[in-house]
Design brief:
The complex is a heterodimer of chains A (about 425) and B (about 400).
Chain A: H1 2-15, H2 17-44, E1 56-60, H3 81-90, E2 95-107, E3 116-123, H4 127-130, E4 135-138, H5 143-147, E5 152-155, H6 157-164, E6 173-176, E7 179-187, E8 210-213, H7 214-220, E9 229-230, E10 247-248, E11 251-255, H8 259-279, E12 289-292, H9 293-299, H10 305-335, H11 337-345, H12 350-384, H13 398-424, H14 428-434
Helix pairs in contact in A: 1-12, 2-10, 2-12, 2-13, 10-13, 11-14, 12-13
Chain B: H1 4-12, H2 14-45, E1 56-62, H3 69-81, E2 86-91, E3 103-107, E4 115-124, H4 128-132, E5 136-139, E6 157-163, H5 164-170, E7 180-183, E8 186-194, E9 213-217, E10 227-232, H6 237-251, E11 256-257, H7 265-272, H8 274-308, H9 310-318, H10 323-359, H11 369-393
Parallel strand pairs in B: 4-9, 6-8
Antiparallel strand pairs in B: 1-10, 1-11, 2-10, 3-4, 5-8, 6-9, 7-8
Helix pairs in contact in B: 2-8, 2-10, 2-11, 3-6, 8-11, 10-11
The chains are: A alpha+beta (about 425), B alpha+beta (about 400).
Chain lengths: ~425, ~400
């Protein structure tokens, strides 16, 4: 029966090419626009570390003074150096890392290369195992080496390709900001999107080229970037001066593998705040936050507002296209009232007619879906030409490909429901007589 | 033209009429709001900087030792000044649409109780305010003895020029000349009012605070170095900037020439608003596609009705209706349907605007968008229906005598 209805549908669609083309075009435009917007949204709101993001937590404590206190206020976005180091030494989590970012000048040995700046991440040792960072050669430094302010450095694949033509450079030296460092590891391609562990750098398509121990950076006073928030008489943070103790400028991440550990860690942070208050460092009552990766990204509203707006617009457009298709489909089905009347008179049930008409709209949906897919690919190509930092990421993946067809099919079937139902209401006798 | 029979006919096709009305209404709502969003983006892109953008460029140097700053300044400035066509080279910490180095909160009392707002401090050497080309509207510009050497991020005490919008915000209705303001313990006196001086990052600030800027005169030194404002005749600016790069490599090989930061102010402005231009382009695309789909929907449905009513049209023609009567019938019908759609669409547009205002920083939809949107849709409807209506007018009276 299905085959017969499919044949009927194709015949009917071929009979009125103009109307069919209009319907397919409307569906294709609507699907194309909404899939483009949806893909961009999907890519941008994706999970940067799907296997692990649930157990990685961003730690916030509130070390601010009492001035302008507001009980419901969120603690600062980052931690102070003292708190970071205290939490690090407490080592209550499965893994923990304290970090900040900056840029350092690289002075290559080759005379053919001018000195250039690279983005750097200054972090403690657990960064690599905690974020599952893949290594091509060598490995990260150890916690002891970090504490010893070792001149160790891990470089990204791209920098290794540029300086050492992709060879195993472990053990080679590299001069950064006038200091010699020993390469201990080379990363494989690694660029989590969004750049969740430090959102100050811009959220998308950002990656560091060198990683070196935080303690080393503190000793060498390397330049740092990102944000510094101070209160009271805090300041500093420029030209080799570290921010003062009343400034937050570092990120602290902890890996907590079970819900029990999360509760325990939150209790620990509250106790830590109380201790610091007893010592006179903290003035406010404990105000701590523990957010996992996705909660942290949500809280920071990482997905740009423009992208959300685009998605809304695209779906508004799809709605207009669907209403349009409903109208056209109604015209098409009602025009065939005579034929449908004959089929009814010959004994076809309403249900059979309904199924036949829905199959016809399904065919329109499928063809529209293919057109929509092509349009979405074109749309994504257009997005990639745009100047945003996330533009390069806009690619269609398999799940989105599948979604395109499901969306197209569902949308057209939905659009076909009303016209098909109307067409089935025709009284066969009346229709035959009027002809 | 009688409207009564048209309405009677439409009543027979309630569902189809309803659908096309809905489509017009949705199109009207999206159209008005999309146009409004475009207008907002364009207004944002045309923010008045108050400076002579076409005559200005900047050179940004990094990577030098702080101890070298004074020496570097001297070498860079004298080198850059020798470039042919260069009118002036001055040191300025922040650059309109470029580097941002002086954002700070100010208070109106030394105790720090009365918060004034977050403003941009442009700390500049002698001649930099004049080089920017801002217009002084009251008080005086910086004089030679206003420029002092300083330690730290900003001079601790200075006579400053502030923008008019900032003055009106801080001291509404009062003469701002001679007023004082503080950043923690640093203290500043207002001696001049300038017309406009945009922040380096106007896009991130709400309307009305986009040019809350303060010019602080200071002598170049350890903490005011590496950021230069170049002024030349508009036609010379590109080549002056090109030459500047070569000069810097020669006179200051110890510093890194920041490619991304060193640009003409016009280019910096363009890249500041790239995102907005792209978004406006996308909105235009949505509008075009929307109008296209709506027009196609009207064509499709009108064609169907014409075909369905061939016999009736034939009868009307046979009993004396002229071609233009038939043409006008379909045109009036379309006009009525589009009018219903617009009426609903205006309410929808208003609702959509309220929804957008909740999540985005948008003002109310100005009322004049609605009649303009209505005119566009009426025109679109008439254009779309013209083809089918002409086909209807071409139906010969003889059709009346045939069955089907």
């Amino acid at each position: 029966m299905f085959g017969y209805y499919l044949d009927l549908a194709l015949r009917s669609l071929r009979r009125n090419k103009m109307l069919t083309a209009l319907m397919v075009l409307a569906i294709a435009l609507g699907i194309g626009a909404s899939m483009t917007a949806l893909t961009v949204l999907h890519v941008l709101s994706g999970d940067p570390l799907p296997d692990k993001s649930g157990s990685l937590y961003y730690v916030q404590v509130d070390p601010q003074d009492i001035k302008g206190i507001d009980p419901d206020k969120e603690p600062p976005y980052q931690v102070t150096l003292i708190d970071g180091l205290n939490l690090l030494r407490a080592a209550r989590a499965d893994h923990q890392a304290l970090m900040t970012g900056g840029s350092v000048p690289v002075q290559p040995d080759q005379s053919s290369l001018d000195p250039f700046y690279v983005e750097a991440r200054y972090t403690t040792a657990d960064f690599f195992p905690m974020f599952d960072v893949p290594f091509l050669y060598g490995q990260g430094w150890t916690a002891t080496e970090g504490e010893a302010k070792a001149r160790d450095i891990v470089i990204a694949k791209s920098l290794n390709d540029k300086l050492f033509s992709g060879a195993n450079s472990v053990g080679r030296t590299l001069r950064l900001a006038g200091v010699s460092f020993r390469v201990v590891g080379v990363l494989d391609s690694w660029q989590p999107n969004p750049h969740f562990y430090d959102l100050n750098t811009g959220s998308y398509a950002y990656g560091e080229d060198v990683f070196l121990p935080l303690q080393t950076m503190l000793q060498l006073r390397l330049d740092r970037g990102g944000s510094t928030d101070c209160w009271g008489n805090g300041g500093g943070g420029a030209s080799g001066i570290l921010p003062s103790d009343t400034c937050v400028w570092l990120q602290f991440w902890a890996q907590l593998d079970s819900p029990a550990k999360v509760t325990a860690y939150r209790d620990f942070l509250v106790h830590y705040s109380l201790d610091q208050k007893a010592l006179g460092r903290f003035q406010r009552s404990p105000n701590v936050r523990l957010r996992n990766v996705m909660q942290w990204l949500d809280y920071n509203m990482v997905v740009p507002g423009d992208v959300r707006l685009q998605t809304w617009l695209a779906f508004g457009f799809l709605l207009v296209c669907l209403v349009n298709t409903v109208g056209l489909m109604l015209a098409k089905f009602m025009r065939r009232a005579g034929e449908l009347g004959v089929r009814r008179a010959l004994g076809a049930s309403r249900r059979a007619l309904f199924a036949q008409l829905l199959i016809e709209s399904g065919v329109v949906g499928l063809v529209g879906g293919v057109g929509g897919l092509l349009l979405a690919m074109f749309g994504l190509w257009l997005v990639r030409q745009r100047p945003s930092d996330y533009a390069v990421l806009a690619h269609l993946d398999l799940s989105m490909l599948f979604t395109t067809f499901v969306l197209a099919l569902c949308a057209t079937l939905l659009a076909g429901l009303l016209p098909a139902w109307r067409a089935c209401q025709i009284a066969p006798a009346l229709q035959l007589k009027s002809n | 033209m009688q409207i009564q029979p048209i309405l009677a006919a439409l009543r027979r096709h309630r569902l189809a009429t309803l659908l096309i009305t809905m489509e017009i209404a949705l199109a009207c709502a999206v159209l008005c709001n999309a146009c409004f969003l475009i207008a907002n983006r364009i207004a944002l892109m045309h923010v008045n900087s108050g400076v002579d953008e076409t005559s200005l460029a900047t050179v940004q140097l990094t990577g030098y030792e702080t101890e070298q700053a004074v020496d570097l300044n001297a070498r860079a400035i004298s080198g850059l000044r020798n470039i042919p066509g260069m009118q002036s080279v001055t040191v300025l910490n922040s650059i309109p649409f470029g580097a941002r180095r002086g954002t700070a909160g100010i208070t109106l009392d030394p105790a720090g109780q009365h918060f004034g707002g977050v403003v941009e401090f442009y700390v500049g050497s002698q001649g930099s305010l004049e080089a920017l080309g801002v217009r002084l509207v009251a008080g005086r510009g910086p004089q030679a003895d206003d420029f002092h050497a300083f330690e730290g991020l900003m001079p601790g005490d200075a006579s400053v020029q502030i923008t008019r919008s900032l003055a009106e915000h801080l001291w509404p209705g009062v003469d701002p000349l001679g007023k004082e303001l503080w950043v923690d313990k640093w203290h500043y006196r207002v001696v001049g009012i300038i017309d406009h001086l945009v922040r380096p990052d106007p896009a991130g600030w709400p309307e009305g605070s986009k040019d809350w800027s303060i010019f602080v005169p200071a002598l170049p030194g350890k903490y005011l170095a590496g950021s230069y404002l170049l002024r030349a005749a508009p036609k010379d600016v590109p080549h002056v900037l090109r030459d500047a790069r070569a000069v810097i490599t020669k006179v200051a090989p110890d510093a890194v020439f920041d490619q991304e930061g060193s640009q003409t102010i016009s280019d910096l402005r363009a890249s500041t608003f790239r995102q907005d231009r792209a978004m406006a382009g996308m909105l235009v695309g949505v509008i075009v596609a929307l109008l296209l789909v709506t027009a196609l929907g009207i064509v499709g449905l009108a064609s169907f009705w014409v075909q369905q009513r061939r016999r009736q049209i034939g009868i009307r023609r046979a009993i004396g209706a002229t071609r233009s009567d038939i043409l006008r019938y379909f045109q009036t019908e379309n006009f009525l349907i589009v009018s219903f759609g617009i009426a609903i669409g205006m309410a929808l547009a208003f609702l959509l605007n309220l929804l957008l205002m909740k999540s985005y920083e948008l003002p109310h939809l100005p009322l004049y968008y609605l009649p303009v949107g209505a005119l566009v849709l009426w025109a679109l409807g008439q254009l779309a229906v013209l083809g089918p209506a002409l086909r209807a007018a071409a139906v010969p009276p003889v059709v009346a005598t045939r069955s089907v």
